[in-house]
Amino acid sequence: QVQLVESGGGLVQAGGSLRLACAATGGTLDYHAIGWFRQAPGKEREGVSCINRSDGSTDYADSVKGRFTVSRDNTKNTVYLQMNNLKPEDTGVYYCAGDFDLYCSAQNPEGDFHFWGQGTEVTVSS
Length: 126
Known about the structure:
- There is one protein chain.
- By secondary structure, this protein is mainly β.
- The protein is built from no helices and 11 strands.
């Protein structure tokens, strides 16, 4: 069974950058759609981005378009989320999630993904 581990979170000032990583064990990530979600304090978890397995297509929530980029490195079995020009409203716990059969978009609900990482915390100070 595939297990996901996120890393790369931290504290950054507004306007700064972070790169999150989602590494997999127990399976090959290039066979899976991988989504990124985030949960801000006191709010529901929301979709941020997604990368598909078949054609590598990507999708983003409107709130992060032009600032975030999702990519995969199949040689490292890892998916990345490059986050630039971070804003305080980007603060939250970021999760990656995967599914074998899904053709995803950033609007897919979390229930569409069947395995999850434990999350990594991102704090953006103003």
